[in-house]
Design a protein that fits this description.
The chain has 2 helices and no strands. By secondary structure, the chain is mainly α.
């Protein structure tokens, strides 16, 4: 009788957690570029990028069972983005006493100190 492997999230939380890898790309057209980018040109670009990701996914991220692709074309007349930090609370703060296994800095991305 074979036993399925038990994952860390099942040990910590009692259930398998839903995991999603999200990648975002924005292709910006320079202001003032006089080019007619509509309909068929947009659809062709979307299809090409979708096809490329679909072709790479099985080899590069074999654990995925589906890809959700979103596309949006807009004239961004105004954009205001900012990150707003919220006050630390017991519900949004992780510490070693919560029983959470701390991450090894070698397993994280970003600048190293």
């Amino acid at each position: 009788m074979s036993r399925r492997p038990v994952h860390l999230d099942e040990i910590l939380f009692g259930v398998a957690s839903h995991r999603v890898l999200t990648l975002s790309f924005e292709f910006h057209v320079p202001e003032g570029l006089r080019s007619n980018i509509r309909g068929a040109r947009l659809e062709a670009a979307i299809a090409a990028f979708s096809s490329a990701v679909h072709a790479l996914a099985p080899a590069q991220f074999p654990w995925a069972d589906r890809i959700v692709m979103r596309s949006d074309w807009s004239y961004r007349w105004s954009e205001n983005s900012k990150v707003i930090s919220l006050a630390a609370t017991p519900d949004n703060t992780v510490d070693d006493e919560d029983g959470v296994i701390p991450l090894d800095p070698a397993d994280t991305l970003g600048p190293r100190s």
